[in-house]
Amino acid sequence: MAFVSEVSDLLPQHVPALRRYARALTGDGAAADDLVQDCVERALTRAHLWRQPGNLRAWLFTIMHNINANERRRAASRPRLATIDDIPEPAQPASQIGKLMASETFAALKMLSMEHRQVLLLVALEGLQYAEVAEVLGVPVGTVMSRLSRARDRLTQLASGERAAQPRSVT
Fold this sequence. Notes:
This protein is mostly helical. It has two domains: 1-79, RNA polymerase sigma factor, region 2, helix turn helix motif (Rna Polymerase Sigma Factor, Chain: A, Orthogonal Bundle); 94-171, Arc Repressor Mutant, subunit A, CATH 1.10.10. Helix content is 67%, strand content 0%. It is built from eight helices and no strands. The longest helix has 22 residues, at 56-77.
């Protein structure tokens, strides 16, 4: 039970980072909140599995990565139903240049493959080391570096106006 109390004591400081990563992964606030909630619940119920002294942050990101991957696999096997949220909102001119740039950056991130987006977000947004990202995603460090390089190259291409290619999955 010592693990449970230690995890529950340390967990709140990691929630903002989990929220940022979940929001960037899903692109939807409600889905991100659900993902964070599932991650926190799983971490608390499986606190006895945390290897001490271990990197709690990397362990939490690993849990979130696995939950997200499992949900994406489940969603891919189900038919997609249209919702009211699928109707695009009327276009509005950006009120600020920063808002426009953020929107373009977010759109460019969505054009990256999920594998490239995950690595880029964990390194650039969350500040994880390559070894931590490799641990979270369950891939070798060399794969992390390769995916990060390709993600940065692709974002550079997108920033220069090359938007024709759609994201594809990397194995």
